[in-house]
Write a structure and sequence with these properties.
With 189 residues, this protein is mostly beta strands. The chain contains one helix and 23 strands. The protein has a single domain, classed as 3 Solenoid (UDP N-Acetylglucosamine Acyltransferase, domain 1). The strands form five sheets. It has a nine-stranded mixed β-sheet with strand order 3-5-8-11-14-17-20-22-23, with no helix packed on it. The structure holds coenzyme A (COA). Coenzyme A binds next to strand 22 and strand 23.
């Protein structure tokens, strides 16, 4: 069954000797399927990919397109969007309100704060015939503070920290902390 707890089930209940067949989503469904499924998708999420690792959880109003890949033990909070060409590693936390566009790669143990903005088109315009999707890489253990903006084609190195509200215009080296607009290094290691 591809979509974890989101799959529709038919539950039969015996009440006063008569059988009631419930075709609708009910809480009991989650409890029953939760025993068998290896990941959890909230009933209010819209998840089209089956590539979700064991023990990952997807919360309300998050939309995930069919090509996306999500690793094990991830927590994707509510109101997120994940496009097709997105790969997310294991033990990743994505807080609420983050849109992850084609070309995004999140390593293992990455933390993405609420309302972080990722981008993939450096010179956007409507109906852009020259659209070139740039890849953004967030390497293992990196942390991105709430509301940061990551410009297209950026690499955020292993264990790096991006401060809340930063606008990241250049690669961030492993282990360093950057803050501000444009983001500047305030700490190394
Ligand atoms: C980046 C961060 C980790 C730095 O923490 P820190 O190493 O303890 O740094 P400090 O608080 O000592 O601040 C050092 C300097 O950087 C500045 N600074 C810290 N964070 C900043 C930020 N996000 N934007 C701009 N400047 C910042 C401080 O004002 C201070 O400047 P000063 O030396 O001129 O006074 C932290 O401030 C931060 O932004 N954390 C992310 C929080 C978040 O988004 N959480 C999401 C989950 S709720």
């Amino acid at each position: 069954m591809p979509y974890g707890c989101q799959a529709t089930t038919i539950v039969s209940l015996i009440l006063n000797g008569s059988v009631v067949v419930a075709h609708k989503t009910i809480l009991l469904k989650n409890i029953i399927l939760g025993l068998f499924m290896s990941f959890y998708v909230d009933n209010l999420a819209d998840v089209k990919t089956g590539k979700i690792g064991q023990n990952s959880r997807i919360w309300q109003y998050t939309v995930i397109l069919p090509g996306a890949e999500i690793g094990r033990c991830c927590n994707i909070c509510s109101h997120c969007f994940i496009e097709n060409n997105v790969i997310i590693g294991d033990r990743v936390t994505v807080k609420a309100g983050v849109y992850m566009w084609d070309g995004l790669r999140l390593g293992n143990d990455v933390f993405v704060g609420p309302n972080v903005t990722f981008t993939n088109d450096k010179y956007p315009k409507s109906r852009n015939a020259e659209y070139a999707c740039l890849e953004t890489w967030v390497e293992d253990g990196a942390v991105i503070g709430g509301g940061a903006v990551i410009l297209p084609g950026i690499r955020i190195g292993i264990g790096a920290i991006v401060g809340a509200g930063a606008v990241v215009t250049r690669d961030v080296l492993p282990g360093v902390t950057v803050v501000g607009n444009p983001a500047r290094v305030i700490k190394i290691g």
